Amino acid sequence: MLRACRLRSFTWLLAICFVLGVTTFGLGAGKAAAAGSVELYTPYLELSAPPGDSISYAIDVINHGSSTEKVGLGFDAKGNQWNEQLTAGGRNVSQLAVKAGETQTVNLELDVPLEVNKGVYRFEVDAGGVSLPLAVDVSEQGTFRTELTTDQPNMEGHSDSTFTFSATLRNRTAEKQTYALEAQAQPGWDATFVDGSNSVTSVEVDPNGEKTISIAVKPPETVKAGTYKIPIAAGNNSTSANTTVEAVVTGTYDLKLSTSDDLLSTDVTAGSQRHLDMVVTNSGSSELKSVALSADTPSGWEVSFEPATIDSIAPGGTSHVQATIKADKKALAGDYVVNITAAAPEKSADAQIRVAVKSSVLWGWVGILIIIVVAAGIYYLFRKYGRR
């Protein structure tokens, strides 16, 4: 009897335990399956980036369940003031429907601020109660600054050269900046800024953007050979940057042309020629090579030079050239201008020679002879027939 009661009690205990076990474990497994049916996955959980950079995460939303899951998307910045954007198909997205056994991909864009401290920053992406922790390692200390750089700050040329430098202006701030441009050149120097094809005095640069500008520097005509530094500045009330370009003037080029007696006039009879001693002077501080002589003459005139080309003239040196001017034989009496030019690749000089054309003396003697002949004829006729 006692044994039967114990057996009956044991049977009831087993039944109660079985019911509780089925209820507890059966219901618990269903909730776990429901709660764990969505998974977030990305292969890169921590990335490194400098200030001002943008980071892109491709995140897979995976549905391990047996039915379509409606997944709400969220982003937890953990108190960090960063700009973020969740997109799918090129548009912002806040909710997804993921079919059973399938995967949808969303993109997370994170903009690293320019003003940020070096270190690791943590974030979370949430989807249907599942969180994906992410981290960004900012590789350097962020600053609010402007940069002005040039790849070639030093250029060399002669005094007639225009020195053109290319500079890059970078805006390392979070706002669009308007920069006033200034070149602190010495008096007499001409400095202009070019953006594209336009001369400018200021430029706008987008946040974390850059702009390439050209700086054209021209020295004065009286500049001496030497090295000249030109400070360049770009700035406003909030931020500024400076750089220095350097122009190396190798020497000045200057050329003068005249006659040996400095007289720029002569005379000639029609059809005859006149020789002039031309003097070419290098009045600059650099050597001149291949100085060629040429002339612009009235129609029918000819000018030749000996020599026609001067190989070299040292600074401060002179060279003599024999110029032969031949007037047209049909030239009428009067004043004519012959323009003579001496030209080197770097510099040229002109001299205007005024030439007075005179009538030929021969025709004068011919006229006198005709008069004498006529007078003699009249005298002869008078003597022969006057007595009758």
From TrEMBL:
The chain crosses the membrane at residues 362-382. InterPro entries: A-galactase_NEW3, Ig-like_fold. The keyword Cell membrane does not apply. Residues 268-343 form the Alpha-galactosidase NEW3 domain. Keywords: Membrane, Transmembrane, Transmembrane helix. The keyword Transmembrane helix applies. Pfam families: NPCBM_assoc (PF10633). This is Alpha-galactosidase NEW3 domain-containing protein. It comes from Paenibacillus rhizovicinus. The lineage of its organism: Bacteria, Bacillati, Bacillota, Bacilli, Bacillales.
